[in-house]
C-alpha cells in the first residue's frame, strides 16, 4: 500500500512498511544504529501502539485511518546552531500539504499543524549530534487523514474538515513530495532568512492576540519573533514588554 516514490530527490525512495509497531521513530533509530539506511528512508505503520509526541506526550491515532511514519535524514550540512531550521522546514512542508485541502492552516510553535484551529498533525524530531554537525535526524510525523472521531476535542483530521475520505497511499506520496521539496531547498542553501520569515508569518499567534500560561501566570500577547535557536518571543498585551520561552515553558489556552 505504501510504495516507494521515485520522482523525489531524496525522500521516499526506500519505504519500510510495518503493519503494526510500537514507534516508527524507535524502529528508525534501530536502523540508524545498524547503519542500514540511505538518506530519505521511511518507516511507516498502520498501527503505532506507543507513539510519542512533544514533551513526553503520547500520540494516539486510530489504526489504518491516518499517516504515521518517520523519515531518516542526514543533515550534516546543517550546523548544530541552525538545527531549528530543520524543524521549520518540516512544519512548513506539512502545512503546505494540508493547505491543499483546508484553507486555514497554521503552524503551532514549534511544529504542530493546526487546521481551522484544531490539531491535524504532530511532529517529533530526534537529532543525533557529532561535533558541530547533525549526523542523523529522525523526523516522526503523524497526520490525521481519515479519522472522524477523537477523544481530544482539539484534534481534527483532513477528512473531518473536508467531509471527504482519502486513499492513504496517494496522500503519503503527496506528503513526501512536499517534504522532499522543502528539504532539498534547505540542503541547497536557500536563504535561511526566507525560511525563518515564512515560518514566522505562518505561526499561530503571529499578529493575533492569544492567551497562554507562563510560570503560573495567565498572559495575553502576540508572537513577535522566533530566535535562530527556536525560542519564542512573545509581545505581551496584558502587561508591558516581551518574554522569551522555550519548550515546556508555555501552555496555549486558546
Topology:
Layout lengths: L14 E4 L5 H11 L7 E4 L21 E7 L10 H15 L6 E4 L3 E4 L2 E13 L2 E11 L14 H5 L5 H20 L4 H10 L8 E5 L2 E10 L5 E5 L5 E4 L5 E2 L2
Parallel strand pairs: 1-2
Antiparallel strand pairs: 2-3, 3-7, 4-5, 5-6, 6-7, 8-9, 8-12, 9-10, 10-11
Helix pairs in contact: 2-4, 2-5
Sheet bearing the most strands, described?
7 strands, mixed
Helix content percent band: 10-25%
Low-confidence stretches are none
Alpha-carbon distance between the two ends: 38 Å
Number of helices: 5
Report mean pLDDT, rounded to a whole number: 93
- In sequence order, what are the helices and strands, one letter per element? EHEEHEEEEHHHEEEEE
> Helices and strands: which structural class?
alpha+beta
State Rg. 18 Å
DSSP strand count: 12
Compose a concise summary of this entry.
The chain has about 250 residues and is of the alpha+beta class.
Explained architecture:
By secondary structure, the chain is α+β, with helices and mostly antiparallel strands. Helix content is about 25%, strand content about 30%. It contains 5 helices and 12 strands. Strands 1-2-3-7-6-5-4 form a 7-stranded mixed beta sheet, sandwiched between helices. The protein has a 5-stranded antiparallel beta sheet with strand order 11-10-9-8-12, with no helix packed on it.
Defining traits:
24% helix; 5 helices; 12 strands; 254 residues; alpha+beta; globular; seven-stranded mixed β-sheet; five-stranded antiparallel β-sheet
Amino acid at each position: 500500500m505504501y510504495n516507494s516514490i521515485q520522482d523525489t530527490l531524496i525522500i521516499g525512495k526506500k519505504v519500510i512498511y510495518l503493519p503494526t509497531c510500537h514507534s516508527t521513530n524507535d524502529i528508525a533509530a534501530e536502523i540508524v544504529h545498524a547503519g542500514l539506511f540511505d538518506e530519505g528512508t521511511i518507516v511507516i505503520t498502520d498501527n503505532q501502539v506507543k507513539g510519542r509526541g512533544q514533551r513526553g506526550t503520547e500520540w494516539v491515532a486510530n489504526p489504518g485511518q491516518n499517516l504515521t511514519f518517520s523519515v531518516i535524514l542526514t543533515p550534516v550540512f546543517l550546523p548544530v546552531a541552525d538545527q531549528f531550521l530543520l524543524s521549520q522546514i518540516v512544519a512548513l512542508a506539512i502545512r503546505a500539504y494540508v493547505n491543499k485541502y483546508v484553507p486555514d492552516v497554521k503552524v503551532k510553535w514549534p511544529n504542530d499543524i493546526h487546521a481551522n484551529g484544531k490539531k491535524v498533525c504532530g511532529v517529533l524530531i530526534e537529532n543525533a549530534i557529532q561535533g558541530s554537525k547533525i549526523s542523523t535526524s529522525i523526523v516522526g510525523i503523524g497526520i490525521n487523514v481519515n479519522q472522524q472521531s477523537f477523544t481530544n476535542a482539539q484534534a481534527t483530521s483532513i477528512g473531518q474538515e473536508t467531509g471527504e475520505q482519502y486513499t492513504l497511499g496517494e496522500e503519503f506520496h503527496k506528503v513526501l513530495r512536499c517534504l522532499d521539496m522543502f528539504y532539498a531547498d534547505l540542503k541547497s542553501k536557500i536563504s535561511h532568512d526566507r525560511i525563518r520569515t515564512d515560518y514566522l508569518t505562518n505561526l499561530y499567534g503571529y499578529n493575533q492576540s492569544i492567551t497562554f500560561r507562563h510560570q503560573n501566570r495567565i498572559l495575553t500577547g502576540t508572537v513577535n519573533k522566533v530566535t535562530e535557536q527556536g525560542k519564542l518571543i512573545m509581545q505581551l498585551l496584558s502587561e508591558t514588554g516581551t518574554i522569551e520561552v522555550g519548550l515546556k515553558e508555555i501552555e496555549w489556552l486558546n
